[in-house]
Amino acid sequence: MKIVRNLSVKPFLLPTCVALLIGSLASLAFCEEGQLLDAVVASVDEKPITLSDISARLTPPRKLTFKDASVDPEARYALDQIILENLIKEEAEDQRIVVKDEDVERYLDEIAKRNGIEREKLSDVLLEEGIQLEDYKDKIRLDILRSRITSALVRDGAGVTGNEIEEYRKRNQDIEGSGIKVKLSQIFISDEKEEDSKVKVTPEEILEKIQSGESFESLASQYSDGPEAEEGGLLGIIALKDLNQSASDAVLLLKPGEVSGITRSERGSHIFKLIERFDEDLDGDNEDLNKEIRQVLEEQKMQSKISNFFSVELTKKHNVDKKI
After folding, report:
1. Is the pTM of this model over 0.70?
2. Is 257 helix (H, G, I), strand (E, B) or coil?
């Protein structure tokens, strides 16, 4: 069951190594055989990120040269993730957000309970997946930091006008009238993924992450190839009849808050989350419909705001020097 190193070169101990400055890119250390030891490939607020940091994130971990890291899609994605993680840590420090050890332990208790694992055996289960408990704690700590930064962002909400509600109804006329309507989010994995697009991950791996307690919305933002990924995968209110047969069958059995299995379409794989279901007829004067549309638009705006903050605004607020 899946649940969701930094090499330091001691130049005085390696007298045959020569440090070379390649342009303004990075400091590279070579032994007499010419073997690359490490290089600084980026920094966040003057704190370095090295080749060995990236290498440790690869599957399987492997040594990289500076050139390898600049052209390998997996390595470039790993670097982007490390930069984002460091940005979150720096921003949390600026906002004086602290995650205590007991916060992490409570999170671990909940994960163990949700997966039917005795808390004392969680470390062994993680090891079976090749994950050290301390590394997993670091990931949880980062997730909590991100969640608390996000909470500060959403306090002001997002305004929606009456005109925006009318425009939404014009674009989605099938939500008015008879038949079942559903408010859905999705994670879509395209069969035609570009080589340099989001990190390669299978729908099965994503579903396991969801079942292990990871946020559907965060996973959608991170992995989904759909245009709604920035909104946490939120599709809005859809007439059930507008879904293909396999998606309709999967969604029909869900209760609000539940997640479907993997369904297939001509374009790829889909995982759906049912947010709300409407069995009654809806018409243009229905206040409940307008209320739901307003909520959908607010959620889309808020998810877009959150995505923009972590992908754009954080980089502007902090000093990021990316060398590849």
Report:
1. no
2. coil
